[in-house]
Amino acid sequence: MIIKKMHDMGIRSEHAYTAAMASIGLSVVTWVMSLKAEPGSHADLARADRWGIFVGEWAPTFFGLGVALSQHEQSEGTLTASVHELREQRQTG
Known about the structure:
The chain is mainly alpha-helical. It has helices at residues 2-8, 13-37, 42-56, 58-76, 83-92. The chain is built from five helices and no strands.
C-alpha cells in the first residue's frame, strides 16, 4: 500500500534510483567533510566513518524502493517510457 501511495503522489522508480545514487555520492562527501573538520586524531576518523556509513545506508533503501516502484509501474502499465523519452514527447507534441 505504501508503494501505491508513493506512486499516486508522483514518485517514480527513477526518482528512487536517483536518490540512491545521490546518497552514495553524499556519503563520500560527508565522510571527506567530516574528516577535514578537525584532521589529525583517531576520534576524527571514527566520526567521519560514522557519518559516511550513516548516509551510505540510505542507498539500499532507495534502491529497494526503486525496485518496488518499478514493479508497481509494470503491473499498472505506467512503466512504458523513460523520463527522457517522456520529456521528448512533451517537447514535440
